[in-house]
């Protein structure tokens, strides 16, 4: 497993929410940590199903909590939903299972955002490749990412904060309205 970092402590303003986000994949899971920093958990096919344990451990560290010295657990975790009618759906479903189990253990509510909704939120268009997502991140926040996993995770993080009333980027209302398609959990802050 390789990552850039295992995320900083949750820094909240008096009323500010704390969000973590995951773009789940068996080969390269993107994580957006509490402060918006990002990393990719890269696994190797030769490790087989043990890769699931690597991703679960990265998720535990990302959502942390007081017992790991990371401050309070996040208010919300945002996950990119399992792709429908995709070759990758089976593997992504396994990753979702282990990460959701971690979130349930820690007691952190989570939301699922489809790829189309995320793209429409970030770019105004719900289809296309990953380039418009990266361009939108650069245009809106001056952010560049080493891979699309981190870019997607960062946009999921933005969506979660936006939903909780603390949007980290300025987007047109029509794009922000796309988040109404998501079933958001009740979040106690």
Automatic annotation (TrEMBL):
InterPro entries: RNaseH-like_sf (IPR012337), RNaseH_sf (IPR036397)
Keywords assigned by UniProt, alphabetized: Endonuclease, Hydrolase, Nuclease
MF-aspect GO terms: endonuclease activity
Alphabetized SUPFAM superfamilies for the sequence: Ribonuclease H-like
Top-rank taxon, per record: Bacteria
Protein known as: Holliday junction endonuclease
């Amino acid at each position: 497993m390789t990552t850039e970092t295992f995320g900083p402590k949750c820094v909240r303003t008096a009323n500010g929410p704390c969000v973590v986000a995951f773009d789940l994949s068996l080969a390269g899971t993107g994580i957006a940590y509490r402060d918006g920093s990002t990393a990719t958990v890269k696994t190797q096919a030769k490790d087989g199903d043990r890769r699931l344990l690597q991703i679960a451990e990265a998720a535990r560290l990302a959502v942390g909590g007081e017992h790991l010295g990371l401050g309070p657990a996040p208010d919300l975790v945002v996950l990119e939903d399992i792709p429908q009618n995709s070759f990758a759906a089976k593997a992504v479903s396994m990753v979702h299972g282990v990460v959701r189990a971690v979130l349930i253990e820690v007691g952190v509510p989570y939301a699922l955002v489809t790829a189309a909704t995320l793209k429409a939120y970030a770019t105004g268009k719900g289809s296309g490749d990953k380039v418009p997502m990266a361009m939108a991140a650069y245009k809106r926040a001056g952010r560049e990412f080493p891979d699309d996993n981190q870019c997607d995770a960062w946009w999921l993080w933005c969506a979660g904060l936006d939903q909780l009333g603390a949007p980290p980027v300025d987007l047109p209302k029509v794009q922000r309205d796309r988040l109404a398609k998501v079933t958001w959990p009740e979040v106690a802050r």
